[in-house]
Amino acid sequence: MAIVKRSQTQSVDSDERARPRDLAGLIALLQDPNPTARRWAARDLCAFPDAAAALVARLPTETESAVREAILMALTEIGGTVAVAGLVECLRSDDAALRCEAIGAMKLLPDAVAPIMEGLLEDANPDVRIFAVNVLESLRHPDVEKWLLKVIDQDPHINVCATAVDLLGEVGTSDAIAALNRLEQRFAVEPYIVFAADLALKRIQES
């Protein structure tokens, strides 16, 4: 049974790959009822930078996890402002899984994300600001600490600051000491902030 099933799967994959592989054909396949066709289309579209808009348009409505993964992989390979803008919109989605997937993809695009990070950290929605801090967790960019220090110095929302101070405990340097002390003073009646700031200070001083 397993051998027959594998053969059938290979046949389906072969059939889907035999369809038109130009940009227009691949974009059309993103709407195909067969998820295998959509997955292969998304994977092949990584070779077409102009496909970013179609990929981000499909992402919020795609229900198959394997297809969504292929779309996200294509977007991270394409990169650029269109891809990042689409991922940012996913941060505003009610779909928690989609938000997490978008955060993971944005972490892989430091050069494209960096120019918009300050705007994300000043977004009117505190949840988006928290998600932006989550992106910083693995974003390989030299300004990560600077952005986090600005958050704990200026953001009025306790949950945003709590997320930022937790990360500073992992990536902070001696440059963060003064800002962490100010944060403790600003949220002196909030036990978690005081605890997290003290922990971050201890880790920095011991490193």
Written account of the structure:
The structure is a single chain. By secondary structure, this protein is an all-alpha fold. Helix 6 (80-90) runs antiparallel to helix 7 (96-106) and helix 7 packs across helix 9 (126-136). It is elongated. It has two domains: 19-106, Alpha Horseshoe (Leucine-rich Repeat Variant), CATH 1.25.10.10; 115-207. It contains 13 helices and no strands.
Please render the helix and strand layout as text.
Elements: H1 2-17, H2 23-29, H3 35-44, H4 52-58, H5 65-78, H6 80-90, H7 96-106, H8 110-121, H9 126-136, H10 144-154, H11 158-171, H12 177-186, H13 191-206
Helix pairs in contact: 1-3, 3-5, 4-5, 4-6, 5-7, 6-7, 7-9, 9-11, 10-11, 11-13, 12-13
How many structural domains?
2
Q: Which structural class matches the secondary elements?
A: mainly alpha
| Helical content class | over 70%
> What composes the largest sheet?
none
Mean pLDDT: 92
Radius of gyration: 21 Å
Kindly estimate the percentage of residues that lie in beta strands according to DSSP.
Answer: under 5%
How many helical stretches? Answer: 13
Query: For the terminal residues, how far apart are their CA atoms?
Result: 58 Å
The stretches of 5 or more residues where confidence is low (pLDDT under 50) are: 1-12
SSE order? HHHHHHHHHHHHH
